[in-house]
């Protein structure tokens, strides 16, 4: 029987907030996606005094989520010099045994990285489907946010690194499906390049053990 996905996201969010929300944080990062909605809900329901905490968004959706929850948003570039974000919560599309994550399924990446890198603690909140021992087990590509003028060059480099699907195509610039013709733009007006690689992707422990990945066959060789 498959678990209810929304219930699973809600449960993960509740656990994450109950176990990790600090005593008196000054700044808390709020990621993007559907799971983070439950994190904000759990923060609201935690019964804490949230009035003196600045919540740092990772994009438009994240900022609206903070505002709609009645929390205080503070833009990343308004953080005082030298101040760290106490903790950042965010979702992921896939997480491997070494806690490497695929992110960007919802076309948010760049600001998520800014916030995560400025955070003392990063908590990834993910439902049971996301945890796979190797990346690219269920999620098909690595999303990369790219400045449009650099896209062709980045894709050429990705191809040299072995990015292509089993059918020998890719990487791809992500396009709108129904409501947008041509490439979608991120909150920074950048493109998302979706890069397929041989599946699944080796971890650094695999590489240390001497396993190699043939980028052209998409299979593991030992
Ligand atoms: O681009 C979107 C972000 O990286 C999300 O955090 C990620 O896609 C996970 O989203 P969701 O919680 O909706 O699965």
Descriptive report:
This protein has helices spanning 5-20, 35-44, 60-68, 110-117, 151-160, 204-208, and strands at 27-30, 54-57, 72-73, 87-90, 94-95, 101-102, 122-124, 142-146, 172-173, 191-195, 212-214, 219-221. With 222 residues, it is α/β, with parallel strands linked by helices. A 5-stranded parallel beta sheet has the order 3-2-1-4-7, sandwiched between helices. The protein has a 3-stranded antiparallel beta sheet with strand order 8-10-9, covered by helices on one side. Helix 2 links the parallel strand 1 (27-30) and strand 2. Helix 1 crosses helix 2. The longest helix has 16 residues, at 5-20. The chain is globular. The protein binds ribose-5-phosphate. Residues 31-35, 90-93, 103-108, 112 line the site of ribose-5-phosphate. Keywords: Isomerase. It is an enzyme of class 5 (isomerase).
Could you give the topology of this structure?
Blueprint: H1 5-20, E1 27-30, H2 35-44, E2 54-57, H3 60-68, E3 72-73, E4 87-90, E5 94-95, E6 101-102, H4 110-117, E7 122-124, E8 142-146, H5 151-160, E9 172-173, E10 191-195, H6 204-208, E11 212-214, E12 219-221
Helix pairs in contact: 1-2
Bound molecules: ribose-5-phosphate.
């Amino acid at each position: 029987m498959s678990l209810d996905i929304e219930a699973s996201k809600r449960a993960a969010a509740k656990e994450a907030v109950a176990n990790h929300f600090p005593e008196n944080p000054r700044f808390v990062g709020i990621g993007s996606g559907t799971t983070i909605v439950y994190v904000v809900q759990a923060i609201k329901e935690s019964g804490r005094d949230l009035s003196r905490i600045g919540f740092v968004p990772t994009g438009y959706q994240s900022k609206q989520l903070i505002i709609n929850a009645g929390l205080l948003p503070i833009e990343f570039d308004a953080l005082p010099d030298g101040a760290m974000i106490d903790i950042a919560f965010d979702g992921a599309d896939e997480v491997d045994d070494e806690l490497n994550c695929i992110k960007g399924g919802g076309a948010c990446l760049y600001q998520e990285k800014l916030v995560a890198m400025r955070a003392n603690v990063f908590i990834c909140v993910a439902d049971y489907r996301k945890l796979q021992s190797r990346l690219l087990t269920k999620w098909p590509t690595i999303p990369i946010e790219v400045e449009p003028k650099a896209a062709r060059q980045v894709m050429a480099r990705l191809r040299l690194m072995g990015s292509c699907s089993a059918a020998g195509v890719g990487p791809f610039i992500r396009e709108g499906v129904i409501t947008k013709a041509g490439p979608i733009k991120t909150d920074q007006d950048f493109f998302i390049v979706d890069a397929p690689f041989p599946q699944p992707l080796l971890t650094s422990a695999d590489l240390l053990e001497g396993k190699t990945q043939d980028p052209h066959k998409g299979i593991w060789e030992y």
